[in-house]
Amino acid sequence: MNLTEMREELKKVIRRDDVELIIGYEKGTFGFHARASFFRNEKDVERFIFSPLCTQNLSTYLKFEREKKIGIVVRGCDCRSLLQLCQENFVRRENLLIIGVPCRGVVDTGKIKSFPLHGDVVEKGDRYTVISDGKREEYRREELIAEKCKFCISPLPLEYDILLGEPSDAKKPVRPSYDDILKNEEKSIQERREYWDRAFSRCIRCHACRNVCPLCFCRRCSLESLLPQWIHRSSSPEENALYQIMRVFHLAGRCTGCEECTRVCPMGIPLRELTRKLEKEVFHLFNHLAGMGVEGKNVLATFSPEEDF
Amino acid sequence: MHGSLPIWSNPAAWIHRRADAFCAFSRIIGKIVAFLCNWCSYAGADLAGVSRLQYPPSVRVIRVMCSSRVNPIFIVKALQSADGVLLSGCHPGGCHYISGNYLARRRFVLLKKFLEYLGIEPKRLVLSWFFASEGKKFSEVVEDMVKSLG
Questions:
Q1: Which of A117, A201, A306, B60 is spaced 20 to 30 Å from A72 by Cα?
Q2: What is the block-wise mean pLDDT of chain A (309 residues), using blocks of 10 residues?
Q3: Interface of A with B in 208-227 (CB under 8 A)
Q4: Contact yes or no for A242 and B80 at CB 8 A
Q5: How many C-beta neighbours within 10 Å does residue B140 have?
Q6: Is the pLDDT of residue B69 over 70?
Q7: Does the CB of B9 have a partner CB in chain A at under 8 Å?
Q8: DSSP string of A89-127, one letter each residue
Q9: Do A121 and A52 contact (CB within 8 A), yes or no?
Q10: Other beta carbons less than 10 A from residue A186's beta carbon
């Protein structure tokens, strides 16, 4: 489905009486990066785009309540966040109109060698072409694709009301695999300690990882509470480690692996290696994957007396 | 400032103070913060004392109403100043609140794996169950912990 057809489809949605707005993507300020946008009428929908540069997880923006339905454009991984939010009764499924997009993987803009502000990325077969200011750069798919896409188990949204495209457009899912953190697990305990000390000493406590996370929706957050104060205000490696342990562990069994935290981290801390590790342990110990459906319970709020650790 | 507040209003300060009590004894090895549940483990530890069983003096007990009251943050916070953390409650199946210790167990196992990945030795975290009648077991568990940490 090309862009014009997608826009036509979205216009049909926004014309409906029970839909208040659609959350989608538009071109960013300079024209290369994509950003989230809220479409309220047909004129707004003209701004809608979808390309491999649309990397944001739009379920982050569901932090308000509405009486009418909200249409939201999601790829497979974002849809899992949505379903997890529904499962936790943060939003009701009937208040959402899930507009699915079959995903072929998104581009990690950090991997582009130049620093393009204008232009676009065109996907053709297994290659990406970055067009910027008249220059063209060719990349193979593996070179440019985001890390999360290499281990994507649901390129096609698990649940959707409307699909922009054909189910066959999505790339093939892989079985759950956690090979990417093996290199960390094989290190000795001392090496791992040093590795994470180095990583956490970079943290500037900007809270970007928390703010962008679709599942971090507590109104009062223990990360900045002053009574009790769990973390000192000053940033030292030790306190930063506590910060990340608290943040990531709060997502244990809930994190759906959209890896927005990694994308937004200004200091390049490999946060995905933390969330992936927890995902792996939850999968191996409790045989649970978060966000696979609206039904179900939080894995840490359930138990089975027979299990023995 | 924290002195005038009840314990439950500021667990962070309380855990910190309990663990910081070690500062005066910096040469003590095997400092342990033990989270004991009110109904079984605390009574068990009490029994160890009443029966005059010898156990290492480097253990500091924090009484909680149930092992599932222990937020993973408590454990990590305690690890900042202590060498080891002991979490203990009623035996599986014997929880005063019916299922609290099952939930605590899931959390603890996950936290232990996670902290190991971050480079914290797994022997610093111990989960052990004992009934009110098992004062001997309490002293043995603490003894073993101090030995392995020292």
A1: A117
A2: 92 93 92 92 94 93 84 94 93 93 91 86 88 87 91 94 90 90 93 95 94 92 88 88 95 93 94 95 94 91 87
A3: 222, 227
A4: yes
A5: 16
A6: yes
A7: yes
A8: TSS-GGGEEEEE------B-GGG-SS--SS-EEEEETTE
A9: yes
A10: 9
